[in-house]
Amino acid sequence: MSVATVDLYQELLQLPGLTVRRDEPMTRHTSFGIGGPADLFVIPEDAAALARLVAYLAGTEIEALYIGNGTNLLVKDGGIRGVVVRIAGALMGIEREGNSLMMSAGESLAAVCHYAAQQGLAGLEFAAGIPGTVGGAIVMNAGANGGEMAKVLDWVEMIDKTGQISCCSREELHFDYRQSQFQYGDSIITKAAVSLRPSAPSAVYQSLYEAVETRCRRQPVSEWSAGCIFKHPPGDYAGRLLEETDGKGMRVGGAMISRKHANFIVNTGNATAADVIELIRQVQDKVEAKFGVRLDTEICICGEDVQ
Ligand SMILES: Cc1cc2nc3c(=O)[nH]c(=O)nc-3n(C[C@H](O)[C@H](O)[C@H](O)COP(=O)(O)OP(=O)(O)OC[C@H]3O[C@@H](n4cnc5c(N)ncnc54)[C@H](O)[C@@H]3O)c2cc1C
Fold first, then answer.
1. Which residue of 59, 71, 104, 220 sits 20 to 30 Å from the alpha carbon of 49, by its own alpha carbon?
2. φ and ψ at 74, to 5 degrees?
């Protein structure tokens, strides 16, 4: 840890409403269960504590990575220099206004889906079983079964790293398949609204149940993974290409292509990020050799290699 980070640790301890840990293993904060340590790992207790932290960090040279539930992250084995800030659990709250839901960025999609069903609002069923937060789902434009966040979003509130708050309508934001401008920018998503349509609560609950049940049958949901590893190439499915190149069961160290779903890499217990990255490269090569298609990764890879 650099001298600047050690000093920052002492200074952050003085700010109210923050839990601050040093050399925090990212294995604890990613659904992959993989990742070296973050120099500093900060959990703000609420929106006010987050705002103080953002304002404080704006006056430093320290890099900060804001994460949700860590379900789409592969953190490299050398860990993350600077600060990782966990939004999940910090920015909480869901409110109904007409047929819209206002959601704070740290809410889980599961809680939002449940609330929508309770309120008799349909349109978010595609998100059932996606284990991330509202903020992470917007950044990744998460989706399934033909639905995606960009199709239901109304507006997004964000704060930039200088502490400036702004709000953009969906039309002003540039979303694409599993892609958004937030993946390349410096904004922290704090709140968003989705437009839904009225329906019977029982019908919405039934659709949620069916979506989760299908997911449990088809995906290795109880194993350590970060969801689908590759984006689907235009007009095809990454899983099909991987299956037809005998990808299932391929492994490097503790990382293995799931036998249940070929587009999932699972950590069988002791996988390193280097194992996962090497396995990704090997299957990309295999698929390219057979189909002439280079699969593009869907997960966020961050941090640095072991020095
Ligand atoms: C079993 C399983 C099944 C999955 N199924 C699906 C699926 O069907 N469809 C799908 O699209 N994905 C799926 N995923 C992947 C993942 O759950 C989604 O991408 C999810 O939306 C990520 O949310 P998160 O809160 O975990 O984000 P994280 O993984 O914590 O972060 C993802 C990215 O968003 C950034 N970020 C997070 N929150 C904020 C914020 N508030 N402000 C700014 N940046 C932020 C992070 O820096 C990072 O770049 C699955 C994952 C697993 C483990």
1. 71
2. -115, 110
> Nearest C-alpha to atom 12 of ligand 1 is from which residue?
142
Asked if residue 231 belongs to a domain, the reply is: no
Q: What is the CATH classification number for the domain harbouring 106? A: 3.30.465.10
Residue 307 lies in a domain: no
Taking the centre of ligand 1 as the mean of its atom positions, its distance from the CA of residue 290, in whole angstroms, is 30
Distance 294 CA to ligand 1 centre (A): 23
Phi, psi of 248 (to 5 degrees): -55, 130
The residue to mutate among 130, 160, 221, having the most atoms of ligand 1 within 8 angstroms of its beta carbon, is 130
Closest C-alpha to 30, from 267, 208, 263? 267
Q: Would the CB of 135 count as within 6 Å of ligand 1?
A: yes
Q: Other CB atoms closer than 10 Å to residue 25's CB: what's the count?
A: 17
Sign of CA pseudo-dihedral 233, 237, 241, 243: positive
CATH code of residue 80:
3.30.43.10
Ligand 1 atom with minimal separation from the 135 CA: 41
Residue 113 and residue 76 share a domain: no
Looking at the structure, tell me whether residues 102 and 212 fall in a common domain: yes
The one-digit pLDDT tens for each residue of the chain (307 residues) are 676 787 899 999 999 999 999 999 999 999 999 999 999 999 999 999 999 999 999 888 899 999 999 999 999 999 999 999 999 989 999 999 999 999 999 999 999 999 999 999 999 999 999 999 999 999 999 999 999 999 999 999 999 988 889 999 999 999 999 999 999 888 999 999 999 999 999 999 999 999 999 999 999 999 999 999 999 999 999 999 999 999 999 999 999 999 999 999 999 999 999 999 999 999 999 999 999 999 999 999 999 999 8
Q: Which atom of ligand 1 is nearest to the CA of 141?
A: 11
Q: Is residue 41 lining ligand 1, measured as CB closer than 6 Å? A: no
DSSP code string of 39-66: EEEEEESSHHHHHHHHHHHHTS---EEE
Q: Supply the range of the domain harboring residue 14.
A: 3-86
Pocket of ligand 1 contains residue 33 by CB under 6 Å: no
Q: What is the CATH number of the domain that holds 285?
A: 3.90.78.10
